[in-house]
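Worked problem 6 (solution included).
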Amino acid sequence: MHKLVVLYQPPADKEKFRSYYESTHLPLAAKLPGLRAYRYAFNLDAPSGESPYWCIFEADYDDVAAMGASMQSDHGAMVAADVANYADQPPVMIHYEVIPGTM
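Solution. The predicted structure is:
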């Protein structure tokens, strides 16, 4: 599995961000080609106290090729262009191969 993580800094208007994000942006993102699952959260904390991020989005893909194709698709471009409609600053994006742990 391959994971894409999108991290957003606190916006000036948190309610406006959240409302648009949940009503408009997430339904768009949910239709990304190859997307297996997604999760998101607001009001992030950090072990040392205040987090520099306010919102997180995690997307699961089969592999890095599937994620790349999704991001480079016409729909991926539409999702990326929509970010300016609710975020004050560009988000931080990272991606990585998930290596299962054992217990």
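Discussion: The chain has a mean pLDDT of 96.
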